[in-house]
Recover the amino acids of this structure.
DNA sequence: TATAGTGCACTAGTGTTATAGTTCACAGGT
DNA sequence: ACCTGTGAACTATAACACTAGTGCACTATA
């Protein structure tokens, strides 16, 4: 997991997004513990308070719950919830891009073609990683 | 033009994006003047400084230039530049959404289907407006 | 010359973000 | 009993982003 300190999106939100997707992807399953505040803070080289802020967001969403002295655990419906919110986020991102393209007077075909090109590129990236 | 004060994206950036797309769409053509600071500020009910900040961004991009005491004018290559950056922005937005979906373990088909659904929805919105 | 409209510069207040430090209560293992 | 590791809470600070308010210099026109 990589954190971009120069990004405009806050660090705590990057962490929350990443953990949420990991839960959606099944990396952490219901009942399982996610990495501790201090462990994750050490790994990402950020302040524990920043990680805690990300956990607060996930707890508010009902994806995880805290057991004092033990750690944070994925709720029973956490996996499905994470999948749902992740999918909604993807949908909203696409919709924003489409609106921007239409407002700039891009023809429909060009918008679709731009998506196909982006898909191929991202897929190529993914291939390299694995 | 509508400004969302509750959005996480800054007002000045919303304005810059909107004007950039308007230039790309040919609403304002090279050599023509774009709405003045105060006129736009009045219309959007924001502070003139906020509009100016948006104009600064557009000027840095080389889309417009200022003539003191007169106004901001679209440069000769402003239209093409605006089209180019707008298209790049759309591409980047799509790529971000695709990466998020893949990280969340969404199957390729589902990502593509989500895009199609978003496209239909946005197209329906546009139909209602016109 | 006077007036109105233009962009520009400076200051100030507010909120957000991230870090740092400290303390506390709880659970588990030795 | 003790120690370690866990989340939670609080304060303080520094830096930055954002918006608003105000005044100034410039241009064109009546």
């Amino acid at each position: 997991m990589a954190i971009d300190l120069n990004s405009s999106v806050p660090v705590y939100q990057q962490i929350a997004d990443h953990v949420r997707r990991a839960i959606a992807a099944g990396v952490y399953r219901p009942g399982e513990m996610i990495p501790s505040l201090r462990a994750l803070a050490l790994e990402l080289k950020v302040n524990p308070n920043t990680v805690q802020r990300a956990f607060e967001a996930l707890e508010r969403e009902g994806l995880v719950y805290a057991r004092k002295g033990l750690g944070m655990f994925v709720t029973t419906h956490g996996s499905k919830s994470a999948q749902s919110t992740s999918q909604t986020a993807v949908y909203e991102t696409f919709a924003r891009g489409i609106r921007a393209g239409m407002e700039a007077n891009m023809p429909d075909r060009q918008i679709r073609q731009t998506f196909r090109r982006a898909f191929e590129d991202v897929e190529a990236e993914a291939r390299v990683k694995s």
